[in-house]
Design brief:
alpha+beta; single chain
Length: about 150
């Protein structure tokens, strides 16, 4: 997704972002890109969710991690990690997409924790693109913020 398309997507869901530039000059602080619904939940460490996935299954959580991989077809999934855990993040209903260049950025994600279905097309595509099995923890994101 081009920076212009990201800015357009942001302005559709965030009127304050309408006049915000899609990118900033080199050396300036990067703007936060907001995609999907606003993040409203209190954050839980990704490592905490990974330690006790059953306690969070089918619940909406907010968490943070570094983006390690992004779907290079559409931007419809990403992998995130913190110092101890990782998660596969699907974007709910393809209502929004993360930029394909998001690897290395910090992502705040809000979504439902679900069991990984190894037969899911998104899961299989992620394993093919990354060359490794996806994380055992999966979220279906309704909102994402990228720094």
């Amino acid at each position: 997704m081009s920076p212009e398309a990201v800015a357009k997507d942001r302005s559709a869901s965030d009127p304050a972002a309408k006049d915000a530039p899609a990118s900033k000059a080199a050396g300036a602080a990067a703007a936060t890109t907001r995609l999907g619904d606003p993040i409203t939940e209190h954050p839980v460490a990704l490592s905490e969710i990974a330690k006790h996935p059953g306690a969070y299954e089918d619940k909406v959580v907010a968490t943070t991690g570094t983006v390690t991989a992004v779907c290079q077809s559409m931007g419809c999934w990403m992998e995130i990690k913190d110092s101890a855990s990782e998660a596969h993040v699907k974007l709910a209903g393809h209502k929004f997409f993360v930029p394909k260049s998001s690897s290395g950025h910090t992502a705040r994600v809000q979504g439902k924790v679900i069991k990984v279905d190894p037969t899911d097309e998104c899961v299989q595509e992620a394993a093919e693109q990354t060359g490794k099995p996806i994380a055992k923890l999966q979220l279906v994101a309704t909102g994402v913020e990228l720094d």
